[in-house]
Amino acid sequence: MVTADSPLALFKALADDTRLQLMLLIMAEQEMCVCEMTHALNQSQPKISRHLALLRQHELLTDRREGQWVHYRLAPGLNTGALALLEQTFSHYQHYIEPARARLAKMGNRPERQQLCC
């Protein structure tokens, strides 16, 4: 399995616009369901799911199921180097995900978002 322990694998995983935005959004929100991500990034569920699968394969994210919803968060075992890189990117480039966060905010509070999800 290719993991984020390899700097090359880490940078390749984050080198895609959608994957980088997903990682930063999840950092900002702590946890997100797929429907929130599709709404925030205005992209299809299959496209988001493909990117999430790659991020999971690289052990950057973990998921949990709750009924029909799948929620993602940063992997608890994420190495300190990868976590530091993501934290620095998040702190210096929040403007990068502001449009997505604004779309997400228009979904309303979490219980309402769950009703709209999936």
TrEMBL record:
SUPFAM superfamilies given in the database record = Winged helix' DNA-binding domain
Name its GO BP terms in alphabetical order.
response to arsenic-containing substance
Q: Which Gene3D superfamilies match?
A: Winged helix-like DNA-binding domain superfamily/Winged helix DNA-binding domain
Keyword list (alphabetical) reads: Arsenical resistance, DNA-binding, Transcription, Transcription regulation
What sequence ranges are listed for the domain HTH arsR-type? Answer: 1-97
Query: What highest taxon heads this organism's lineage?
Result: Bacteria
- Gene Ontology MF term list: DNA binding; DNA-binding transcription factor activity
Q: Which PANTHER family match?
A: ARSENICAL RESISTANCE OPERON REPRESSOR, TRANSCRIPTIONAL REGULATOR, ARSR FAMILY
Protein name per UniProt: Transcriptional regulator
Q: Which organism is it from?
A: Oceanisphaera arctica
